[in-house]
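hey m, so remember when u said the tokens were messed up on ur end? i reran from scratch. heres the input so u can diff it against urs
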Amino acid sequence: MPFVQSRSLRVDIEALAYLDQTRLPQVEQWEACNTPEAWQAAVKRLAIRGAPLIGLSAAFVLAQYAARNPQGNWQGVSDNLRATRPTAVNLMYCLDAMEACFDQGVEALWARATALFEEDRALCQAMAERGADLLRDGDRVLTHCNTGALATAGVGTAIGAFSVANTRGTKLHVYVNETRPLLQGGRLTAWEMADLDIDYQLICDSMAASLMAAGKVDKIMVGADRICANGDFANKVGTYMLAVLAHYHQVPFYVVAPYTTVDTACATGAEIPIEQRDGSEVRGVTGAFGEASWAPKDAPVWNPAFDVTPATLVTGWVLDTGVFDQDAIARGEHCRER
């Protein structure tokens, strides 16, 4: 039996395996990941993705490295892991927790990694319950990217709220942004909606404005990779566009995330490092189906993985610790110690 297991991660004392998210939905393929270098490669190509899952898997990879290399450079490995995805603060949170155990030995590292995993599972459930409280029977909800069990140890963040609402009998209709350029919505969220038996429709990102103008969206719920002290937050590129549209059309806009995503040292969104990714992701697409290219091979590309949504555009921040409005955020209530 696995030491720990989630929808997309399996870990025992000998090995870590991940569900390759680049091959979904066509193929459910598990891959072994037994070195820090293999983990970095998997994360960079988004085979392992989702801010919480990235942090958790990094913790286990570090624990495995320490078990195999008792005299190795644990700090150097942690530093390398930390640099892999600079925007998602969950990675930093998990590695900080692991580094605090370095002087306690390998068993302490395993215990800490496992505790982080179980913590995330509990955080997912808590925020999902709070998010579900905001949903009403018949709500038409728009979401972006993928925020479900594939991206976390538990039920997920925004999709977790849909899942809990569904189990309560709250009937939803979820509009799934395809999420260009890597199609996490089309490939992953649509797959999870079907798996959860939640009514949904897939739309192109460029269709969201027309959908709101037609009065067909009651709420928007998204996840986050980093929430600043002032409430600004980074999420998959395209989120900011939705927030602007929601503000214009007076559609409530919620961000759902665990407290581990709050970066109290980051004052505003201007301080969030935004990862730039390879232009090939915009010039074409790759998956289990093969490769397709629709642009000149040398077309110049600007490809930020994330954008920053200002706090002024957010209706509410749904954390495991509570639901915070703009006044609460201004008071820093989301930054208080648990």
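this time it looks ok to me. The chain has a mean pLDDT of 95. if urs says something different then somethings off w ur setup not the seq
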